[in-house]
Amino acid sequence: MFHSLSMPEPDKILALMPIFRRDERPNKIDLGVGVYRDASGITPVFRAVTEAESRILAEQTTKTYVGPAGDQLFCELMTKLVFSDHGPLERISAIQTPGGAGALTVLCGLIAKTAPNATVLVPDPSWVNHLSILEDFGLTAQRWSYLDKATGAADFEAMRRAVLSARAGDVILLHGCCHNPSGADLTREQWRDLGSLLVETGVVPFVDLAYQGFGDGLEDDAFGVRHLAATVPNMLVASSCSKNFGIYRERTGVAFVLGRTQELSKIAQANMVVRARIGYSMPPDHGARIVSTILQDDHLASDWRSELEEMRSTIVGLRQALAQAFRLRSQSERYDFLIGNKGMFSQLGVMPQQVERLRSEFAIYMVEDGRINIAGLHPDKIAHFVDAVTHVIRSS
Ligand code: LMR
To answer: Residue 90 is part of a domain; what is its CATH number?
Structure first.
């Protein structure tokens, strides 16, 4: 047993966390894993989450099993948060999952079951775990070049070519908002064009929505997913509560399917339940209960929305300050793309060996592909960060 195994490559994002914790340099900066940090460097618990937890603690009378599909009320509230009251709700089914990655896993399992020969078009770059999950189910992934290197924006023409080269029934993996790792989102017009293209070709959208609320706001960030839901016959959506409720370790997410008919949607849901039962039996309950307690209560929901909005505007402010500091230092507009990017992430355009030098010489941590989590940057550290990046680029 085990002798045929080899040591896997460390995860490009998660491997940084323990190394950063062990680093004793006082001026260290963590721009690695995608978590929000406040001005004191803490990933705070939302006020509404603390209040919801105290209510749960006071009122919960049992911890007996809920079931593989999770809590129905949570799923209903999340369906409305993602798709609004006006989406084709009767054709949308959901199950609660262990985080967004759990939703992706359930949905990839569903694709492998229903369309094992489908090719999944995956943007390059994308979140590092996307390919691992797809490959684990034996699904064929095909990359397309997502970014226009000259502008730092999404290369919609490349996306169009990728969709047109696919077969009906193939799947395209999309980031609903705050594209991870590039921060380059589609415009509304591009979402509309994409919707028409998907209808024309029969390619099925599979949307990963992990940062709703961090780009332009809770409603605006859902534009793409809502537009597609109103347009295409079939869709898969993985949604995460980790970031926008700040409940990262509670592992709370939702896997949604939109079916051509209500009946097909229900059959797909029943198959997701089977995937859940095989994979982990039932999702953890606590995070989902927190979310449903908040979303059901007007006062808590409004407080949660305003705290999320504060986080969003902090990130927008950091983006502007960072771009301005780079502009002054480089005497160019080369880094202005940082302002146009949405959410926590941008790609700085540094090489892996420069990323390594930033870590060893300046205690600045970022993902190997140059992805930075803007929320990890305190305003007081921007000047030091810009100096370090400029120094490393110029001396490489
Ligand atoms: C990230 O992209 O940093 C987060 O989603 C954490 C993770 O699981 O990779």
So the answer is: 3.40.640.10
